[in-house]
Write a structure and sequence with these properties.
Length: 530
C-alpha cells in the first residue's frame, strides 16, 4: 500500500512503536457477552437466575443485565485475546452444567417474548446496592419499555499499555501531564471510532431479521420475510438501528468527544437535569420506587452509546467520578452483534481485527469534530445498519459521497500496518489474515454474517425464531460435548458459592435506610466539578 495514505502522525507513531515492540504485547482485552435464557421451545425463561450460578450481584464473571432472564458473562482483562475467548467459552460450558433444559439464545435480537409486564426485571437481593440496581432497571422499563431491554450484544474492552502514553507524549512534546495526555488520546480514539465504526457494522452486523412480535404492533419501516419475521433486505444490524423507537429524553444528549471534560460534564448535567415526562410520573407510585430520579438519565450508564471511555471504579464510586479523578483507562466497544453462528458469539478472527482497528483509531490523526461531522458520523452508521449490503451504497466523507466499498477497502489498507505490527509482536500472520478475511467481505457482501443469516433462513425455510432456536441447540450440544476439566468446574462452583456468601454478608451488615442511600448516591455525582 502507498505510504501517502497514512498520516504523518501515524507514520511517526508506527516508527516509535516499531522501536518498542514488546510494549504492544501488553494491550489488554476483555469481553462481556449478554444472552437470554430460553425454554426448549425458544420462549423467554421465566425461572429465577439459577442459584447454582452464584449471586448476580457479587459473581464477577456471571451476572444478569436487564432481565432476570438476560445473562451476562464477563471475562477478566487479559493480554492474549485467545485466552480471553477461552475464558468466555469456559463460562459458557459451566453455565450449561446448571441450565437444565434451558438454552442460551444464539442471536442479539430476542426470542418470543411474553407480555411486556411478564418480562422479569433482574433481582439483586435486599442490600441497598442490590435494591438500587433493581430500581434502576424498573426506571429503564418505565422509560424505554422492557421489550427493548431484552436485546443482547457483545462488549469488547480494549486498552493500550500504560507505558506507551508517556513515550508518545514525550515524542510529541505535549504540554499535558501523563494522565491528561492518556485521557485525550483515548478520547481521540473514540472520535476516530465514531468516524469509522460503520465498517464494524458492515463486517460483523448479524441481525438483519427479528421476530414480528418484538415490535408489539408499533409502526415500523421493515419488510415481511415470512408470516412471523420482519427484516430489511440489505440490513446488517437492526439491533443498532432506531427500529422506530427513540429516546426523546436522550435526543438532545450528544457528547461529541472533543475532550474528557466536556464528555463527563454533559453526562453529569443529564443526571442532574429533570425531564418533564419523568417528573410527571415521579420516583414513587403507590409508595413503591419506580425510578431512581426524574432526570434525563438516572445514572450515567443509562446513556446509550456505541463506545464508552472507562476506568475501573473503586467500591461505591461512580463511573464519572473515576473518570474525572483518574482519567480514561480503556474503551468499551458496545455496538457488536452476537454472531449466531459462533458458540460464544465472537471468535478470534473478529477479536484480532478489532485489535488492529482500535489500534488504528488510537494512533491515526483524530481532529476534533466540527461543521456537523458528528452528525455525519451518526448518519453513516445508521445508513450501514439499515442498508449496508445495498450494491453501490454511498456514505458521506467530508461532505462528499464515497461508496462504502471504496472507503472500506481504503480503511482496511490503512489498518494493514497496525496488523503487521501486531503480527511482529505475536509471531505468525494471524492479524494480516483477519484483515484479508474482512476485505473478502467487502468484495462480496454475501460473505457478511448478516447475509449468511438470511441465506441460512432461506435455505432451511425457517422463521427468525426457528433459525435462532436451531442455532442455540447446535451450540448447546457442542458446548455440552466438551465438559470442563474437574479443576475448572470446581473453580466456577467455588466462585458461585463464595458470591452467594458475599451477597448474604452484604445483606446482614446493611445499615441505613434505602431512601437515604439513594439520596447520597444522587448527591455524589452532583458534587463532581470539572
Amino acid at each position: 500500500m502507498k505510504e501517502s495514505i497514512l498520516s504523518e502522525l501515524l507514520n511517526r507513531r508506527l516508527s516509535l512503536l516499531g522501536a518498542n515492540l514488546p510494549l504492544l504485547a501488553q494491550c489488554l482485552h476483555g469481553i462481556e457477552r449478554e444472552c437470554l435464557r430460553v425454554t426448549s421451545e425458544g420462549r423467554l425463561a421465566q425461572t429465577p437466575h439459577p442459584e447454582a450460578l452464584g449471586s448476580a450481584l457479587t459473581n464477577e464473571q456471571i451476572t444478569t443485565d436487564y432481565s432476570e432472564s438476560l445473562l451476562e458473562f464477563i471475562t477478566p482483562a487479559l493480554a492474549d485475546p485467545a485466552e480471553v475467548l477461552d475464558n468466555l467459552e469456559q463460562i459458557h460450558r459451566f453455565v450449561y452444567t446448571k441450565l437444565g433444559d434451558e438454552y442460551l439464545w444464539s442471536p442479539s435480537m430476542p426470542c418470543a417474548l411474553p407480555a411486556e409486564e411478564d418480562i422479569p426485571i433482574a433481582e439483586y437481593g435486599t442490600s441497598n446496592i442490590g435494591k438500587l440496581k433493581h430500581v434502576y432497571r424498573k426506571g429503564l422499563a418505565l422509560r424505554y419499555g422492557r421489550t427493548m431491554q431484552c436485546i443482547a450484544g457483545i462488549h469488547y474492552n480494549f486498552s493500550l499499555p500504560e507505558a506507551l502514553w508517556p513515550l508518545l507524549r514525550e515524542a510529541e512534546g505535549s504540554p499535558l501531564d501523563n494522565r491528561d495526555y492518556q485521557s485525550s488520546a483515548y478520547i481521540a480514539l473514540i472520535r476516530n471510532f465514531r468516524r469509522y465504526s460503520w465498517l464494524l457494522m458492515y463486517l460483523f452486523g448479524a441481525s438483519p431479521t427479528l421476530d414480528k412480535g418484538f415490535l408489539r404492533g408499533h409502526p415500523h419501516q421493515l419488510d415481511e420475510l415470512d408470516a412471523d419475521t420482519l427484516y430489511l433486505p440489505y440490513a446488517t444490524s437492526l439491533r443498532m438501528s432506531d427500529l422506530g423507537y427513540q429516546s426523546n429524553a436522550q435526543a438532545g444528549l450528544t457528547p461529541c468527544y472533543n475532550d474528557l471534560a466536556s464528555y463527563t460534564d454533559s453526562l453529569r448535567k443529564a443526571v442532574g437535569t429533570p425531564y418533564p415526562p419523568y417528573v410527571e410520573v415521579g420516583t414513587h407510585v403507590d409508595g413503591d420506587w419506580v425510578q431512581l430520579n426524574t432526570n434525563i438519565l438516572q445514572i450515567e450508564n443509562e446513556y446509550y452509546s456505541n463506545i464508552r471511555p472507562k476506568r475501573v471504579t473503586y467500591t461505591g464510586e461512580r463511573p464519572i467520578q473515576a473518570l474525572t479523578s483518574r482519567g480514561v483507562q480503556y474503551v468499551e466497544v458496545r455496538c457488536l452483534d452476537i454472531n449466531p453462528f459462533l458458540p460464544v458469539g465472537i471468535d478470534l478472527t473478529e477479536a484480532r481485527f478489532l485489535d488492529a482497528f482500535l489500534l488504528f483509531c488510537a494512533l491515526e490523526a483524530s481532529p476534533q469534530f466540527e461543521n456537523g461531522e458528528c452528525g455525519q458520523c451518526t448518519d453513516n452508521f445508521l445508513t450501514v445498519v439499515k442498508e449496508g449490503r445495498r450494491p453501490g451504497l454511498e456514505l458521506q466523507r467530508e461532505g462528499q459521497a464515497v461508496t462504502l466499498k471504496a472507503w472500506a477497502t481504503e480503511l482496511i489498507g490503512r489498518i494493514g500496518p497496525l496488523a503487521d505490527l501486531l503480527d511482529r509482536v505475536h509471531g505468525g500472520n494471524a492479524h494480516a489474515e483477519a484483515l484479508a478475511e474482512q476485505q473478502a467481505k467487502v468484495d462480496d457482501a454475501a460473505l457478511t454474517p448478516s447475509a449468511q443469516v438470511l441465506a441460512r433462513m432461506t435455505e432451511h425455510n425457517e422463521s427468525f425464531l426457528e433459525f435462532s432456536l436451531r442455532q442455540s441447540q447446535v451450540h448447546a450440544e457442542r458446548l455440552r460435548e466438551q465438559p470442563l476439566s474437574p479443576d475448572q468446574q470446581q473453580r466456577f462452583e467455588r466462585i458461585a458459592r463464595e458470591s452467594l456468601v458475599e451477597q448474604s454478608r452484604l445483606e446482614q451488615e446493611e445499615v441505613g435506610d434505602f431512601d437515604l442511600f439513594v439520596g447520597a448516591y444522587q448527591a455524589s455525582i452532583l458534587a463532581i466539578s470539572n
